[in-house]
Design a protein that fits this description.
- The chain has 247 residues and is an all-alpha fold.
- The protein has one domain.
- It contains eleven helices and no strands.
- It is globular, with a radius of gyration of 19 Å.
- It is found in: Membrane.
- One of its GO terms (molecular function) is magnesium ion transmembrane transporter activity.
Length: 247
């Protein structure tokens, strides 16, 4: 956001990707995601994704100090509600085995719930892309909905790749399976397009609006993908099934 604001003030307009500050931000974001990537190999998606709350509250404070934004009462209330909800999500997240083999990932990929879910996601994404490209609709919800829809395959692929690498390091080689490389390509591609649409949203709207909305959409998309693809609530207790969506 800082990079976009600085470029807007310059007489000669340059593309954002030629800004050293913008690349610095993307690099820091990438380093943070390395930690996320590692976590997905050891914990359920439904536990890791909601903990992105740290980035929401952190970004809110950063925008106050560096972008000179005003912290409103509603922001403080929203942050408090977010932390409360995260506590419930983390407390009632399912406790399932996290060591996923390449064969398990292959079976999940061809399961009918995931295929139906994928088709619905593709249809919704194409509709949003049509409005974005043809009708020039660049509303924050449209942009961040596309980011969230791309986040679903990203999270699925990240968990698969991270788990297979963790197993390989332990001596159970998984890197010889083609599904490992398929998921790696899916992860990289979906990440790249996420950055494109997220960057557009940050350019057009305030960080105090983009970050929390993106967090809610991303977390919801990630949790749904974890429930459908990895069946993380398959053997969960009834109390957990009720309290988790409440959180």
């Amino acid at each position: 956001k800082c990079a976009h604001l600085r470029l807007a003030c310059q007489a000669e307009q340059k593309p954002y990707y030629r800004s050293k500050l913008w690349w610095c931000g993307i690099t820091l974001l990438g380093l943070g995601e390395v930690g996320n990537f590692t976590a997905y190999g050891f914990a359920p998606i439904t536990l890791v994704a909601p903990l992105g709350c740290v980035s929401v509250t952190g970004s809110a404070f950063i925008s106050v100090f560096f972008l000179k934004k005003t912290m409103r009462t509603t922001d403080i209330l929203g942050g408090t509600l977010t932390i409360t909800g995260i506590y419930l999500l983390v407390t009632f997240a399912p406790n399932v085995p996290q060591e996923l083999t390449a064969r398990q990932v292959q079976n999940y990929l061809v399961s009918w719930p995931f295929l139906v879910y994928s088709i619905l996601e593709i249809i919704v994404f194409c509709i949003l892309l049509y409005f974005y490209k043809r009708k020039a609709v660049k509303h924050i919800v449209v942009l961040l909905m596309m980011v969230a829809l791309l986040a679903s395959p990203t999270v699925i692929a990240v968990k698969a790749v991270s788990s297979m690498i963790a197993l390989s390091v332990k001596g159970n080689m998984q890197l010889t399976y083609s599904v490992f490389y398929i998921m790696s390509v899916l992860m990289a591609t979906s990440c790249a397009f996420q950055i494109k649409f997220l960057n557009q949203a940050v350019h057009l709207y305030e960080a105090t609006a983009v970050v929390p909305i993106n967090f809610v959409f991303f977390t919801t998309s990630a949790i749904i993908s974890g429930v459908i693809f990895y069946r993380e609530f398959q053997s969960a207790a009834l109390l957990s099934v009720f309290m988790f969506p409440f959180g």
